């Protein structure tokens, strides 16, 4: 099965290059550094910890782990690979020259036969669920341990893995270990053939984000320009959502004329497309790329920028998570919860089923089954400070109770890599995560 996958990948290489070129029309970074996609990297240190973080979200989530690794193991350098230019930009913005960076090569076996013996990595650490059979197979042949950390596996993804089990089962069994976010994720990995002894449930390290003084200052500065307006943020929206959410906002403004919607598309290559959608809505708007603050007459503020979502969460009174009204499976609700904001999602949240179900049980999130229900709940929250405080506090308490995953994951990884400090106290590991299965 892997030979068939590899043959198909080689056949599709021209199409992949065309796709990069086309995507480069809106993000020029896709037309650059193509040689790295074939494993021709700049000089890299031997014996490094190799972390693969795919794109922006995974890289931001990995930030505390990387910073603490550099502090705890200064003699072991870090290589970070991503798949996207925005991921590459995020690595540069967060770490500068503290780490080494390249694009992850496409999954050609001949590339990894050459690259891995040259790098001799201490270990490959993969964030969440970006698994490639030839990469993992090559690491297995060269005795490089491979760890999947902050691992999550939705029911939908598990069904896909099961359909391709002739390819995925051997790959999963070659992993040295999986640090799963929650018990349901662990159970799905086990059902796909991963031995239970190779799985540790550590929680989601995204709960261990910290609110810096810089972020607090940025939120305060942006909020001054909004003053006392009712504000909600539509975060990480996808194709098929923006027009509907703009119509929801149009109806909200008939009740709250000075209400402001901050619209944050997930992907930068859609910024112009979304601007056209806002144009069509007829709602007055301005763009972050053109104005640092929304105007008084604006009904919509298009956040066509990178790395500022937490600022907009902090300035808004209510957060609505995108990719939940289009069947897409949702995005992580932890960031607004960490800022004590009421969080709303639509009916599609399979990507974060465990977290959202647990939050719902604790009344820390509002799940709406339609756009009409979303409008009603938004209006209620925007009108009532007491209601906002109640749901925001519940979200924040849930976030606090889930912290400690990073410490658990570090201890688990250090044990596997024989990096435990002889003087370390095993009790420093935080309490186990509280999100469990429904058994």
Radius of gyration: 22 Å
What's the CATH superfamily of the largest domain, by name? Answer: 3-Deoxy-D-manno-octulosonic-acid transferase, N-terminal domain
CATH topology of the largest domain: Rossmann fold
Q: At CATH's second level, what is the architecture of the largest domain?
A: 3-Layer(aba) Sandwich
What spatial order of strands do you see in the largest sheet?
3-2-1-4-5-6-7
Oligomeric grouping of the chains: single chain
Tell me what the structure shows:
The protein has 439 residues and is α/β, with parallel strands linked by helices. The protein folds into two domains: 33-209 and 404-428, 3-Deoxy-D-manno-octulosonic-acid transferase, N-terminal domain (Rossmann fold), CATH 3.40.50.11720; 213-401, Glycogen Phosphorylase B (Rossmann fold, 3-Layer(aba) Sandwich), CATH 3.40.50. 45% of the residues lie in helices and 13% in strands. It contains 17 helices and 14 strands. The protein has a seven-stranded parallel β-sheet with strand order 3-2-1-4-5-6-7, sandwiched between helices. The protein has a seven-stranded parallel β-sheet with strand order 10-11-9-8-12-13-14, with helices on both faces. The radius of gyration is 22 Å and the shape is globular. Mean pLDDT is 93; it is low at 425-429.
């Amino acid at each position: 099965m892997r030979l068939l996958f590899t043959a198909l990948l080689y056949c599709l290489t021209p199409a992949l290059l065309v796709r990069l070129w086309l995507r480069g029309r809106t993000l020029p970074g896709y037309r650059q550094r193509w040689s790295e996609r074939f494993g021709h990297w700049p000089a890299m240190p031997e014996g490094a910890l190799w972390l693969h973080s795919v794109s922006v979200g995974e890289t931001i989530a990995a930030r505390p782990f990387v910073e603490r690794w550099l502090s705890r193991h200064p003699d072991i350098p870090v290589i970070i690979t991503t798949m996207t230019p925005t991921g590459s930009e995020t690595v540069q913005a967060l770490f500068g020259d503290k780490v080494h960076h390249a694009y992850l090569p496409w999954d050609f076996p001949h590339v990894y036969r050459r690259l891995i013996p040259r790098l001799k990595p201490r270990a490959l650490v993969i964030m969440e669920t970006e698994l490639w059979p030839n990469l993992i197979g090559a690491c297995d042949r060269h005795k490089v341990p491979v760890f999947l950390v902050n691992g999550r596996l939705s029911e939908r993804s598990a069904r896909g893995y099961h359909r391709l089990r002739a390819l995925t089962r051997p790959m999963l069994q070659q992993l040295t270990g999986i640090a799963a976010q929650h018990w349901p994720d662990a159970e799905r990995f086990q059902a796909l053939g991963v031995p239970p002894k190779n799985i540790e449930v550590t929680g989601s390290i995204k709960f261990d984000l910290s609110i810096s003084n810089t972020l607090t200052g940025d939120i305060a500065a942006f909020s001054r320009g909004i003053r006392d307006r009712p504000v909600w943020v539509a975060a990480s929206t996808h194709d098929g959502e923006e027009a509907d959410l703009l119509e929801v906002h149009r109806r909200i403004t008939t009740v709250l004329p000075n209400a402001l919607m901050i619209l944050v598309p997930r992907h930068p290559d859609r910024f112009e497309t979304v601007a056209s959608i806002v144009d069509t809505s007829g709602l007055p708007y301005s763009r972050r790329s053109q104005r640092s603050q929304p105007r008084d007459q604006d009904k919509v503020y298009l956040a066509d920028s990178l790395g500022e979502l937490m600022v907009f969460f902090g300035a808004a009174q209510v957060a609505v998570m995108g990719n939940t009204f289009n069947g897409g499976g949702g995005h992580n609700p932890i960031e607004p919860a960490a800022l004590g904001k009421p969080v709303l999602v639509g009916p599609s949240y399979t990507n974060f089923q465990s977290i959202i179900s647990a939050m719902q049980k604790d009344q820390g999130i509002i799940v709406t089954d339609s756009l009409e229900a979303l409008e009603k709940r938004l209006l209620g929250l925007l009108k009532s400070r007491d209601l906002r405080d109640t749901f925001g506090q519940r979200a924040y308490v849930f976030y606090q109770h889930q912290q400690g995953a990073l410490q658990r994951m570090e201890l688990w990884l250090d044990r596997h890599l024989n990096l435990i400090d002889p003087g370390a106290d095993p009790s420093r590991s935080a309490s186990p995560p509280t999100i469990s299965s429904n058994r």
